[in-house]
Design a protein that fits this description.
By secondary structure, the chain is an alpha+beta fold. 38% of the residues lie in helices and 20% in strands. The longest helix has 26 residues, at 11-36.
Length: 410
């Protein structure tokens, strides 16, 4: 008896054809739009001539490419700038992909379709949700981008003056990023972007931009996960299998069933790569988490006299050497300051940042302007973390608990 032949799926070929067709159609549309519209002008008269020219490709292509040679950063940008480091390989497994084929990578931010024209030569199509960022790098060749849909903001560092140039682009806009120019895209709307280079792909990271992008990466991985709280208080007090300590919180994640707040926090931090990159960073993160716990308040409310005594012991600038049980907000600020002010540990978001943010947020409710005036660095950190994509949306959503620990203060 003849064996049945599995039915071949044509969808990958159809999808590939649709993408290629979309690219061609939008490029033709862009060319027509450019012929009928004036060249884009710089947004600021204060920009240096070289920086202003970064805003877009002039209409005269020959003149534009000659100017690109002067706009490109010197080679010393790659070797002598302290904030520029060689990026790890970003092939996404392209070595095994045949020429003319594509591979797709997806995360919480959207998707990247990477087309392989030949070895080392790629065309990328990005689909990115509003609020996220990409790039944070620079290349040893010119980069070209076409916005197919949605508005985006492009930040670039002029490699000659060191000034930041900022410009917004919309559908059909053509962008040229000169060689050795640090840049970062901020997507203001859901966006589709086409990108390619005029030489083999190789990247260097610009750390100030890359660190901002990496802030949002772990949070992107949690997008669409349901972390809602569903508590049965009667069961919590009676079922010692589910609630061995007779209290919340409890986390169930597949086969993982956990109680105790800090155990759950550390588990999620490990799962979403928020515990640090090295053993030293992991230990520092763990230490800071314990330091934060020393300051946590479990009182429902504090009377004014108690607030004054609490401030004097744990927050006053002149009491760090007094008897405080190892708890003082200045101790935590010291870690932040020593590490540059953006992160408690390392150069990326960790659970230590989130724990410090939470304890600062709690005390802002209690002490308000007094805390802001005494510790402006902590409040700047608090605002920066609250603006991270994913965190920002959560804080503005109904999912945020108004009363942690079931009371109004902590």
């Amino acid at each position: 008896m003849a064996s049945a032949t599995p039915k071949k799926s044509w969808w990958p070929y159809i999808e590939h054809g649709l993408l290629v067709g979309l690219i061609g159609w939008r490029c033709v549309e862009l060319w027509r739009a450019r012929r009928s519209s004036p060249a884009r002008k710089p947004s600021s008269e204060a920009d240096a001539p070289s920086a202003a020219a970064l805003h877009g490709l002039p209409r005269d292509a020959l003149e534009a490419f000659e100017r690109l040679k002067t706009l490109a950063g010197p080679r010393e940008v790659l070797t002598e700038w302290p904030d520029v480091v060689e990026a790890p390989g970003a092939s996404m497994g392209m070595e095994a992909v045949p020429e003319g084929e594509a591979i797709v990578f997806r995360d919480g931010r959207g998707a990247i379709y990477k087309f392989k024209l030949k070895e080392g030569v790629y065309v990328n199509m990005y689909f990115t949700k509003a609020g996220y960022r990409r790039s944070g790098d620079l290349h040893d060749c010119n980069q070209y981008d076409v916005v197919l849909q949605g508005r985006t903001r492009l930040r670039m560092i002029d490699p000659h003056s060191g000034k930041e140039v900022v410009q917004e682009y919309g559908a059909n806009d053509f962008i040229v990023i000169p060689a050795r120019t640090p840049h970062m895209f901020e997507f203001l709307e859901d966006n589709c972007l086409l990108e390619w280079w005029d030489s083999s792909f190789k990247a260097w990271y610009y750390k100030p931009y890359r660190s901002v992008i990496e802030l949002g990466l772990p949070l992107a991985e949690t997008e669409n996960r349901d972390f809602s709280v569903d508590t049965n208080y009667a069961e919590m007090k009676s079922d010692r299998t589910k609630y061995p300590f007779g209290q919340c919180p409890r986390l169930v994640d597949g086969d993982i069933d956990l109680c105790q707040s800090n155990t759950i926090t550390r588990y999620l931090a490990r799962k979403y790569k928020l515990m640090g990159k090295t053993e030293q960073e992991v230990c520092l993160v763990d230490m800071l988490m314990e330091g934060v716990e020393s300051l946590r308040i479990y009182n429902d409310k504090l009377a004014e006299a108690a607030k004054e005594e609490y401030w004097k012991t744990y927050f006053a600038k002149d009491t760090t050497e007094g008897r405080n049980g190892g708890a003082h907000i200045q101790y935590l600020l010291n870690f932040l300051t020593k590490n540059g002010g953006k992160h408690c540990v390392g150069d990326a978001l960790t659970i230590a940042d989130l724990c410090l943010w939470e304890i600062v947020d709690l005390h802002v409710r209690i002490f308000g302007d007094k805390l802001k005036e005494t510790y402006p660095e902590l409040l700047a950190f608090h605002e920066a973390i609250a603006d991270v994509p994913g965190i920002k949306e959560y804080l503005a959503s109904p999912k945020r608990l108004a009363s942690p620990n079931a009371n109004s203060m902590g």
